[in-house]
Amino acid sequence: MSVLIIDGSNLRSGGGVTHLVEILNNMNIERFPFEKVIVFSGKKTLQKIKNNSIIEKRSHILLNMSLPFILLWKFLYLERFLKKLKEKAVLLDPAGTYNGTFRPYISMSRNMLIFEEQESNRFQEWKMRERFRILRKQQVKTFNKAQGIIFISNYAKETILPFLKPREFDYKLIHHGVSKRFRSLPKVQYPISSYTVEKPFKFLYVSPITVYKHQKNVLRAFHELFHVDKLPVKITFVGDYYEPEYKEFLEVKSRLDPKNDFSEYVGKIDYQMLDVYYKEADGIIFASTCENMPNVLIESMTSGSPLLCSNKKPMSEFLGPNFPFSIDPTRVSSIVETTRYFLNNPKTRMQSIMDNLENSESYDWAICSKETFSYLSRFIN
Hints:
Blueprint: E1 2-7, H1 14-25, E2 36-40, H2 43-46, E3 55-58, H3 67-84, E4 88-93, E5 105-108, H4 117-120, H5 126-145, E6 148-151, H6 154-160, E7 171-173, E8 201-206, H7 215-227, E9 233-238, H8 243-256, E10 263-267, H9 274-280, E11 283-286, H10 295-302, E12 307-310, H11 315-319, E13 326-327, H12 332-343, H13 346-359, H14 365-377
Parallel strand pairs: 1-2, 1-4, 2-3, 4-5, 5-6, 6-7, 8-9, 8-11, 9-10, 11-12, 12-13
Helix pairs in contact: 1-14, 7-8, 7-12
């Protein structure tokens, strides 16, 4: 019997959970290359995975606790379990942190913050910067020992490979997919004169409030667009937060927009409700400067709404070379000027929507699932 073991112990939220859930929920059981899949994770993550005859979901009290307890579980339980395995097995390490003796294992590249020092240095806390440094050292060690690596963007591959020992790496580029519930028909684009303060052009920014997402600069830009340009715009920020940056964001917001005239923050929402926010938006902004293959970007591309997006890599890898609404998130003036151009050019907005929909057609979870499990099956002993 051939068994695929998935260590999802570190996956709690965000793109990692989405990826794990979607590749398993979109697996083709009739053509599946393994006879069994054993998934270890916390209960909340496992509940999102559909039940079927192949998948065996396993949790543990330690997997529902904080990181130190998860590491303890890896040391005390996972290694013991892997050593006792008698079947032909492959271990998938989605978090890129495996440090045990089991072979073969396949790792994944997800977190670019640990490889982009300019971005991790945006965090003022020494502890955070040191944590990223330690994680980079750990992930390089994990990748160097892995039998294979899955990259989800060309940018990640080109950035990370120079950190690794010079050897022949067996790696595979497998793009994420996007859920069909995010796909919508293109929205008709109207001139900005069709909107009013009472019925403004509604922007959406989906991302945790943190230093490399630049929500403060977006807020400052919208203050200028609303008060100086007198444009009828409003932006909704959706997502969790990193406490120190959140405090600064609230300070800026209370100073520039205390009455929510042109902005609002609704906090973290259930992922299953996110498509509702996309459908209600007239436009979307994504101002991150550190990404791998952001789910938010691909979801935005399929939403039928026009998009303003960061000019940093890897965004152009997915948007294509002719994307008209690129912004430099570190410069408020860039956000203002591009948003102004965006609002005053409905025909360009419409063409951009069509291009985004076309560019996003290949991002499918069923394809991602098939390619992932096909690649993993190559390592069956």
